[in-house]
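Translate structure to sequence.
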């Protein structure tokens, strides 16, 4: 685990950890997230959303992200926070297994993970990694109330 406090920002935090891509690592990633957010004093209702999304992203990395690479693949979890946002990123080694939100189906017993992430996160996406050949799936969470936009400040309609 690596945790860093950045001096140049008013409030900026970073933590990351690597996990073996096995099912029990999903719970370990969730515990790591819980401890990290609590250490940063971000253990409010939004933290529940972040933990759930980490579980979904980690589950996808275990199930899909190391496909064809054997049971000993690894996924990396990064968590960054500033005064307004928490950014979560799960990186695995398979650039081909890209995430998508599937249409809802009453018959489906799985495949709802990215729909959950899309509904809880402020934004989400993925990007291929040039070095290492994998991909990173990220989600971002607004953790502070949004104030008036600068263009609207003081303007009456």
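Result:
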């Amino acid at each position: 685990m690596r945790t860093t406090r950045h001096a140049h920002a008013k409030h900026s935090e970073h933590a990351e950890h690597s996990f073996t891509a096995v099912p029990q690592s999903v719970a370990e990633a969730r515990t790591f997230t819980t401890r990290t957010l609590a250490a940063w004093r971000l253990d409010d209702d939004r933290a529940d959303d972040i933990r759930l999304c980490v579980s979904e992203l980690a589950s996808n990395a275990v199930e899909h992200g190391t496909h064809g690479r054997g049971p000993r693949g690894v996924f990396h979890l990064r968590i960054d926070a500033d005064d307004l946002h928490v950014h979560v990123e799960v990186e695995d080694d398979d650039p081909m297994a890209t995430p998508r939100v599937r249409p809802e189906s009453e018959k489906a017993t799985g495949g709802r993970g990215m729909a959950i992430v899309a509904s809880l996160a402020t934004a989400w996406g993925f990007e291929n990694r040039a070095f290492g050949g994998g991909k990173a799936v990220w989600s971002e969470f607004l953790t502070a109330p949004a104030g008036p936009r600068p263009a609207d400040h003081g303007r009456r309609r």
